[in-house]
Design goal:
The chain has two helices and 21 strands. By secondary structure, it is mainly β. Strand 2 and strand 3 form a beta hairpin. Bound molecules: 6-O-phosphono-beta-D-glucopyranose. One of its GO terms (biological process) is carbohydrate metabolic process.
Length: 296
């Protein structure tokens, strides 16, 4: 379903039979809403989000490409999140049965302007799928379309903002005991200590070579998000906390309490493609009720 979003920006709504839905802006190919069958919003979107190019939309799932963070020649997190993508009118079929799956394929082609700031040729195809149980799948295929033998090297993240009741009551499982780069300390390398990750201050860490499954447990709402990833070895965890939140103009002062970014990413070692080569990176999200006592 094609419709107009904030400021008339085109967006697409995916719906699933039980009433789950997802909304995607062509601007940034950004998922801005993901709702379960009860109509509850599962992604955080800032009340102060600015839906005006070239500003990226604050919340949902921004795509960080071709550069994650500030390390590189481009603006922070690259340009994919502030370009208009096009809908593929004739998407290739699923390898398996397509029934019960709502999906859209969006394409980012490098414009001549982009080639000036980043001298590479690529095609980026993003498939966004809402599965029968309401699971949200994002699959990126990036191909090096260079004709002059040039390698394509990039870093990447699905910068997912999960909606949580109170971030200080949230626990993340699957990252304990791993090595991480601390973005708050010049990307110095540390090893995570302790049983599970909880939040009581600003955090901005790049966990390295993580398991493919990460759980985000919202104790207050009795909900567990399960993030599964493929082709993306790292995971970024970010919350700006109170002071940093005040310095972000498109984030409400208290918004940090209701969001947590856990991002399937490839940051430490860039992906390098030879001409004609394609890379595939997937993130799958599900949200399930969790039992209060066990936290599972
Ligand atoms: C996170 C980074 O992924 O994104 C942080 O690790 C950064 O360092 C945050 O501050 C938000 O970035 P932006 O550009 O959307 O404000």
């Amino acid at each position: 379903e094609h419709t107009a979003g904030v400021h008339g920006l085109p967006k697409i709504i995916l719906r699933e039979v039980r009433g789950c839905s997802a909304e995607v802006y062509l601007y940034g190919a950004q998922v801005t809403s993901w709702k379960n069958e009860h109509g509850e919003e599962l992604l955080f979107l800032s009340s102060k989000a600015i839906f005006k190019p070239p500003k990226a939309i604050r919340g949902g799932i921004p795509i960080c490409f071709p550069q994650f963070g500030i390390q590189g020649s481009l603006e922070q997190h690259g340009f994919a999140r502030n370009r208009f993508w096009i809908v593929d009118p004739d998407p290739p079929p699923f390898p398996t049965i397509t029934s019960n799956k709502a999906f859209v394929d969006l394409i980012l082609q490098c414009s001549e302007e982009d080639v000036k700031i980043w001298p590479h040729r690529f095609e980026f195809r993003l498939r966004i799928t809402l599965g029968p149980g309401g699971d949200l799948m994002l699959t990126s295929r990036i191909r090096n379309t260079s004709t002059d033998g040039k390698l394509l090297a990039f870093t990447f993240a699905y910068h997912t903002y999960f909606a949580v009741t109170d971030v200080s009551e949230v626990r993340v499982e699957g990252l304990e005991t791993l090595d991480y780069l601390d973005n708050l300390k010049n990307r110095e390398r540390f090893t995570e200590q302790g049983d599970a990750i909880t939040f009581e201050a600003e955090v901005d860490k790049i966990y390295l070579s993580t398991p493919t499954k990460i759980a985000i447990i919202d104790h207050e709402r009795k909900r567990t998000f399960v993030l599964r990833k493929d082709g993306l070895p790292d995971a970024v965890v970010w919350n700006p906390w109170d002071k940093k939140a005040k310095a972000i103009p498109d984030l409400g002062d208290a918004d940090y309490k209701h969001m947590l970014c856990v991002e399937a990413a490839c940051v430490e070692k860039p992906i390098v493609l030879k001409p004609g080569e394609e890379w595939k990176g997937r993130q799958e999200l599900s949200a399930v009720p969790s039992s209060y006592c066990s936290g599972q």
